[in-house]
Request: fold
Amino acid sequence: MSTDTTVKANATPTYSEAFQSGVREEMTRNKGIFILGTDLQERGGHFAQVKGIAQEFGFDRVKDSPISEAAMVAAGMGSAMYGCHPIIDLNFIDFSLGAMDEIINQAAKIRFMFNKPVPLVIRATSGIALGGAHHCNSLESFFAHTAGLSLAVPSTPMDVKGLIKTALRNEDPVIFLMHKKLSGIRGEIKGDDYFVPFGKAATIKPGKDAVIISYGYSVVTANKAAQALEAEGISVEVIDLRTLYPLDTDAINAAVQKFGRVVVVDEAPLFGSITAEIAATATEANFGSLKGPIVRVGAARAPLSANPAMSEAAIPSVDSISAAVKKVMKY
Amino acid sequence: MSTLDKEKSLAALRQMMVIRDFEETADKLCLRGKVPGGMHNSSGQEAAAVGVMSALAPDDVIATTHRSHHHTLAKGFTPKSVMAELFAKSTGVSGGRGGSMHLAGVERGHFGGNGIVGAGVGIAMGAALGIQVLKDKKVSVGFVGDGGMNTGRTWEAINMAVIYKLPFIIICDNNQYAVETFVGRVTGGGDLAKRASGFGLPSFNINGQDVEEVYKYTAEARERALAGEGPTFINAVTYRYYGHNVGEKGQYRTQEEIAEWRTSKDPIDYFTGVVLERKFATQQEIDDMRASVRTEIDEAVAFAESSPEPAISTITQGVDSGKLGIQL
Ligand SMILES: Cc1ncc(C[n+]2csc(CCOP(=O)(O)OP(=O)(O)O)c2C)c(N)n1
Ligand SMILES: [Mg+2]
Reply:
């Protein structure tokens, strides 16, 4: 078994480096893994997510692509059916829209129709930061809604590594979303034999009074809100879903039953978002345990603006999450 | 139609100076955090933008890319209104909602910059279809980068323009790099005009550093378009002096290469020489022109700085008309 040596023993790696680490280990093990996307070989991707991998594994296994998203996903899909395990790096998830047919009509359905697995990872940077309307789409519910796709949304370096390794041992198409605002965060990672299963949530912070269920960067905001509420005497548990499909309904049900006061948070516009799915499913299964309606916190139904204050105002904040918790505490 | 007269030459030279000064000024402001989300600097690419616009009528339509300050200024939008949009202020061309990548003024024939590579070509093609349907005497121009030459949507739009004989001009604003990727590494066949000609439209590789050459090819394309002869593809080879995004350097090209383009192929230096040689202006007049441009850009910065932010209460306004479901 190879152990990754590029991450120095005493320095905790960044979120992007954690991705590199997991990919390196799996590439060493499986010759069929290759990466294809724009500006990967020299630049290492826009978020340094594959920095140095081309130099280590060769340009045959880290390929620079033209800006041809439909062809990129098609290339990944065909080669996956043929026996490879490609990572297609779409840069920003917004650019998946030019390959939506390949993802939703093709990759997601091949196994069902042709009994042929499509071991394909589509990696992209997601979430809301500055960048305006075309670079801040929250498309999680599109993908989670599509039978045949799995969806990873890690919020820590540890989970990035553990989840990408699992994805690369899995035989299904995985959408792997890495949040813009998390690229540089640092944290512990584990070694070659550590895998995070899909469909298994993590408790980020234990609590006694209420629970916030979230994923991605919203976990960070939710955690800040929970810390602030602690000072006001409200003890809030924070759960990070880590994958949206499969969804850890056991963890959700257990939390709803335990607390009865539930807030669900993400950055997508509320209408039709994954938070609606979580709230509906949790309510159906646990109506009797709820002390009142589940409260959802999400984004406004509007494209994101270039103006930073407008953009911030459109998405959840520590204040809006705290307010939601206080609302469920009144039940 | 093959040369620019005195008035147009001086206007073109000044416009190129405006773009250069605007970009270099904005670049520094961006490094100081004044341009939320960053920006794509078009320094070096002035001639391709100004040459095209010199050949268009004011109400012709354009749609462009993520790198579109030069197109927007050349189309006649003031440095004030463009700078304010870079600052995401309410006085900007898109009210601060768009930012550097989404400059627009649809009523004035600017159908927008774009965050999605290749998307502007399709929008401009659609505008050309509108012009044809409504029998207007206008043309539409779609800008795309060399990187955008490899996305399918670009060619779908070009094919459609050909079969419908649309009054359409596609300008490849070919600065030879897509982020850090040299055009030659990702462009099958290499010759873009040859590639386009396979779609059945007149296609040219031209010197994008010579504003007059760009003007000439665009003017001829416009004549054909207005005569009902359909679209033209123009690959204007140019060069970007700065990184893809502000602040980026990278090892993908040599300093010698950049220096060579700056010193021997600079579009402003070149055309200043032409203007002097034709005696359209004296050196003193050119110096005065540069000074007046400097003042104009300073005023644009002051305007952007002092402009108000858009109101937070507007974040969900204008998403839809709100009128669906209302009995007409
Ligand atoms: C569909 C899509 N894919 C990828 C990107 C990311 N991206 C933004 S600009 C760019 C390079 C574009 O190069 P080119 O078309 O040559 O334009 P230039 O930046 O040189 O003006 C890339 C890959 C994008 N914005 N849209
Ligand atoms: Mg380019």
Summary: The pocket of magnesium ion (ligand 2) is lined by residues B 145-147, 175, 177-178 (CB under 6 Å). The interface with chain A takes residues 36-38, 85, 88-89, 94, 96-102, 114-118, 147-148, 150-153, 178-181, 185-187, 250-252, 309-310, 312, 314-316, 319 of chain B (CB under 8 Å). The radius of gyration of chain B is 19 Å. Chain B has twelve helices and seven strands.
